[in-house]
User: Fold this.
Amino acid sequence: MSEEVASLNDFKLLNIKCKRYFELYSKGASFCQKPENEKLKERFGFYLFMLENLCDEKDLDRISDIITDTEYNSYLSNKRHKDQGIDAIYINDESKDISLFNFKFRESFKPNKKQSNNEAFISTKIVNCILNSDSSGLEGKLKKLVDDAIERLNSNDVWKISLYMLSNESEPIDIDETSIQQLKDFYDMEVSSICLPQIKAMMSIRPKPISSELIIDNDALMSYSENTISTSKSYIVRLNAADIIRITCKTPEVRNNYNCEKIETLAKEHIDYGVLFDNVRGFVQKSKYNEAIAKSLREEPSKFFMYNNGMTIVAKDIKAEPVNGNKKVRISINDFQVLNGGQTLRTLHNFNAKDESNITEYLSKSEVLVRIFNASNSDAVNKIAEYTNSQNSISNVDLKSLSTLQIQLEQLLDEHGIIYSRKNGDTGMDDQKEYRYKISMELFGQILFAIQGNPEKSSNQKQHIFGKYYDEIFSAEKFNISDAPMIIENYFNIKKSYDSISENLQKIEQKVFYILYMQKAGTNLTCQECIEELEKALKEFKSSELKLTDARKMIQVRFKDFLNDRLGLA
Assistant:
């Protein structure tokens, strides 16, 4: 049984979103030739949208740098190098993953149209190049990225290679099909197929309030309130996994049917992704964590409660009343979100969809610890999300995305026609609005860090910007929130200035950070003069290391000191 069924409307909505993605990116990027064909815009936007979600990378410039597709790069840079069946390569040094992407973007919707197995085999040419440490015959960005992948594989670290087959078609490849399984075994490579039904889950739209009802045994429930006189109560419950399927499914009648007698009917229910709108984790196609959940459900369903960390739900309103002679409690949760445990919830639903017997054989015998917090106050919701998720391996950027300040920034910048991307997939608070720029929360943090005197740290210590440096960078003493629109406007103006320079200058994001720093430091130089001074400093700076790249120079404190001396800023 498939998890979802895709419709023509899903296909159209995806095209609209992808076109919007491309148009937003092209406003801040420098394309040698902008595509006039609407389908090309949708196709290029498809690359950007999917890679942002699957690579968990919100900066579209960095995403563009890993796209190897021949036609995309011919429009971007007028360079037409063959992509050899691989449209993007992403190297994650933190998780030690090398991800290869093969895209197929169909211009028309065909129900029951399936992805082609042949595309997976076409992609093996690049896999062979990487495994054989041979990039001869490759050109452009593809050669550089393959060389980078070869370097990683030849190190002492253990790396994993994954192949993603992505399409806007209706049905995925059967990953368990013999030829695909042989491919996986031969290359020791993960193969994932993602198409329209899975992509639907990524297209977040603020959902209508979701409500459900539960009946809980007294011995499976504990109530909590902040003080003895508070009428606002929260609950910790031991909840059957089948009930979790029911209260988070798409059908309102089923969600509110707390006395569901025919549990087998839940086998046909699918997750309502609206309950995960505020969840800090993005879309995760496959992980070892998910596989472990499914394994424990099948092998030891009665012990699942002990093996799983549980879920955290927040609701705008919770009503509870004793029933059945005070032996049970009926709980109504209104306008609720699953803030923590999203991966558990997805995996429970995926496990339910795999076989009609799973709901009765396994899920009905499993229980999960669920915290249900009454959180009508948005600040409380944000803190619950941050603190309950901080126990897991979630990035500081994602945790801080739910802070009051970051939400205020999103709202302020929206008023100035700027999308402040706090989460993957953001295309603005108003789909009808014409936005000028899109900037990620992470990039804005880097910009602030540079302006505040740390351009040399903005790139190589960016992982700490939303960690140990966060309170200082975003403090009221150092950052005036009303300056945010002007700061972002200036960033894009400097970026455009670099893009328009006809000389063969290496365009590195760090250079923009340095220009912002120079302007803030009070050099009284124009943007063009700042660029010229920075380029001269990079040429004249001497280091003990031979053939040091501009990027390597700019992360050194010695270079910043050298630049300060030249400009009289020391």
